[in-house]
Amino acid sequence: MLPLIRSAQLMHHLEGGATKKYITKESKEEPNPNFDIWLNNDGLLTSWLLGTMNEEALSLVVGCDTASQIWKCLEEHYLGLTKEHELHLIGQLAIKKGDNEPIESFIRKFKGICDRLVAICKPLNDLDKVFQLSRVVATRYQPYNLAILSKAPYPTFNLYTTGLQNNERDLQAAEQESKDKEPAYSRVFVAQSGRSN
Q1: Count of alpha carbons within 13 angstroms of residue 62, beta-carbon side
Q2: How many CB atoms lie within 10 A of CB 97?
Q3: In 3D, which of 167, 122, 166, 159 has the Cα closest to residue 143?
Q4: Which PANTHER family match (predicted)?
Q5: 156: left (phi over 0), alpha (psi -120 to 50) or beta
Q6: Are 33 and 77 in contact (CB under 8 A)?
Q7: Is this structure's pTM higher than 0.85?
Q8: How far is CA 90 from CA 24, 115, 116, 181, in A?
Q9: In 13-151, where do the E strands start and end?
Q10: Reduced to 3 states, what is the DSSP secondary structure of residue 154?
Q11: What count of other Cβ atoms lies within 10 Å of the Cβ of residue 107?
């Protein structure tokens, strides 16, 4: 809703109070010419807000007449839940990657948590995401981390994750090459041991 409200230049309806119906001009009260405009815009914004709410949220705003009252009521109710959710998500970012989990799926999961932080207006900046991810990937990526993160300029999150995935492919290729170069006599011994068992 916020981008839509900002684009319609109606943020002041959420942040401030109502425009006065009457103004004092030269020591006498006159109708405020801006009041009707304010009233129409506030009615439109109130309709938008109410139209996007589920039943639970609607039950919270019964008796609220203006967009500002609705917004304040929702903020008071959900702010505590948002803080709790933020702390839970930040805790999830600290969970280390399992040894058998593919790096691609771990990055997707990590990015999903970052996206949920954005959704509750608590985004991590790009550099924080890079360093947080570097702390929770397995130790096998530490040489890559040292090479990339030991000095500025630091990579963007997208460049860093692409590099991690390339590093994973290189490590897998090296491991496969090492298996392929295993001496023939050790493969024969393993095969003979298996047959005798």
Answers
A1: 4
A2: 20
A3: 167
A4: COPIA-LIKE POLYPROTEIN_RETROTRANSPOSON, PTHR47481
A5: beta
A6: no
A7: no
A8: 52, 12, 10, 44
A9: 22-25, 28-31
A10: coil
A11: 20
- Report the alpha-carbon distance of residue 100 to residue 138 in Å, rounded: 10
List the beta strands (DSSP E) in the chain: 22-25, 28-31
Residue type, position 157, single letter:
F
Give backbone dihedrals phi and psi of 30, rounded to 5 degrees, phi first: -130, 155
How does residue 182 score in pLDDT terms, banded at 50, 70 and 90? low
- Neighbouring C-alpha atoms within 13 Å toward the C-beta of 42: 22
Q: Are the beta carbons of 103 and 97 closer than 8 angstroms?
A: yes
Per residue in 72-113, pLDDT (tens digit) is 888 888 776 778 888 899 999 998 888 788 899 999 999 999
Q: Please give the single-letter amino acid code of residue 161.
A: T
Residues 6+ apart with CB under 8 A from 63: none
Q: Can you read off the two tokens belonging to residue 186?
A: 């050790």
Are 89 and 64 contacting, i.e. CB atoms less than 8 angstroms apart? no
CB atoms within 10 A of CB 148: 18
Query: How confident is the model over 116-128, as pLDDT tens digits?
Result: 898 888 899 999 9
CA distances in angstroms from 74 to 28, 65, 88, 100, listed in the order given: 38, 13, 21, 43
Domains in the chain: boundaries: 1-68, 75-175
Residues 6+ apart with CB under 8 A from 45: 5, 8, 10, 13, 14, 67
